[in-house]
Amino acid sequence: MASLDKTEIISKQPVCPLCNTRGKKVLRRTVENLCPGIRLEDGPYYLCLSPACNIGYYTSSGQVIPKDRLKVPIWFKEESPVPVCYCQQVTDEEIWKHVAVDKCCSTLEDIQKHTGANTGCRCVETNPAGT
After folding, report:
1. How is domain 9-71 classified at the CATH fold level?
2. What pLDDT sits at residue 5?
3. Are 83 and 72 spatial neighbours (Cβ–Cβ below 8 Å)?
4. Which residues, 6 or more positions from 131, have their beta carbon under 8 angstroms from its beta carbon?
5. Name one Pfam family in it (predicted).
6. Which of 5, 30, 45, 119 is most buried by its number of CB atoms within 10 A?
7. What top-level class would CATH report for the domain 76-131?
8. Is there a contact between 5 and 40 (Cβ–Cβ < 8 Å)?
9. Helices in 1-131 by DSSP H: which ranges?
10. What is the rounded CA–CA span in Å between residue 102 and residue 9?
11. What tens digit of pLDDT does each residue of 16-69 get?
12. What average pLDDT does this structure show over 68-72?
């Protein structure tokens, strides 16, 4: 039985056609929810993982969706304030304020209690990474 080489599997994943960076495969449901009004092709979609690239999603057949066509910003492609928790609409600035300014949070549990971050269950629909 032939064994699969991980590098061979990874190399077959499509790269962003603009920046040549490997992406993260996301569910079609994620793209449909975050890109209303855009006609989607069949097949898998990938989130471009390059912070400097203007592409949000792409397919292996060449369809690209610019990041500015998404309903929400992609946190690692934008400057603060950016969403940390898309479900509860909590930003990095809000968490910073609770930890460094108000000094009311020192643990993840404190942050969850004060902001609601990471307590939602709609990541597939609201987070560009689908997680």
Report:
1. N-terminal domain of TfIIb (2.20.25)
2. 54
3. yes
4. 123, 124
5. zf_CopZ
6. 45
7. mainly alpha
8. no
9. 6-11, 28-34, 92-96, 108-115, 123-126
10. 47
11. 999 999 999 999 999 999 999 999 999 899 999 999 999 999 999 999 999 999
12. 97
